[in-house]
Structure formats: structure tokens, C-alpha cells
Amino acid sequence: MLENFNFIISCRRFLEKDCANEIWYFFSLIGDDKSKCRPTNMPGLVTAKTELDPIQAINQLIQIVENDPYSFRFSLKIVPIQICVDSNLDDIKQAILDLKYLINENDSFKLEIKKRYSDFKTPELIQELADLIDNKVNLTSPDKIVRIEIIGKRTGVSILEPKQILRLEKIKQDSLF
Hints:
alpha+beta; four-stranded mixed sheet; 5 helices; globular
């Protein structure tokens, strides 16, 4: 696993190397042929580091998928990460505070926490982190998603629009109808 990643990609088990190669290919297609993509020690999970801005990169990947929903074969979900920190509560809180400016005054938000190899208790974590943001909570259709990806000793933090979490399986299913 990469220590400082700015993308987390999920795929089917045993296809992690294929997924990493696929992600490297698409990053090179959009302008970074020096990106690093590595399977983690968790089944179905790949981390990546690109020199591109993660939000600009995900927007370019979205355009590729809009033109051809089947362009990705191995990746299931692609999540951009804006800040990567150690997995301790103070660092995670600081990352949220550093990104909080991305939530406009009237935006609603949802906190999404994905934990892997972590001892954090989800209810306490939600309470601690949600208290940092004064905006209205909307769990069904938020304007912004505060995404926390805990992978062992490292945590990725992002504040995203819902469409910026690229759910490739859903896009493929929607393209059939």
C-alpha cells in the first residue's frame, strides 16, 4: 500500500493487480504517466498516487466514463482523496478543518466513514467529526460528502460532491436502461 495516496479504488477480489494497471493507464491517459498504483494488503482494494489534482482527475475520469461506461473493466469504485494523514483522531479532525471551506454556507452534508483495520468506534467517530461542521445534515441527498477512508495506520479525507465518487457498477447498470 502507498503511504501517501490520493485515490482509493475498489475492485473484485484477486483482480487488484489488473485494477492497479487499469488505473495507471487512465491516469497516463489524462496526463500523469508517473502515477503509482498499488494493491493494498486488503482484498479488493488499491491505492494510487498521482501528481494531478485529485478533483480535476476524477472529473476527467467521469468524462471518460460518460463517453463510454464500459471503459473501465476492473475498477468498481474510485474515490479521490484530498488529504492523507495518520489514523489518529486529531489528524483526521485537522484534515476536515483544512477542507471545511469546500462546504458552502447553505450546503447540506453527509459524513461517510469507511474503516479497514481500525479500532475506531463508528458512533463516537461520527459524533466527534460531525460536530466540526455547522451545516445541515442530509443523509439521503447531500450537497457534499465528507468522506473518511481509514486503512490501518493511514486515513484519507475528502469533501466531495456525490458525483465525484465514481461508482462504476451503478453507471454501467444505468447505461442499460
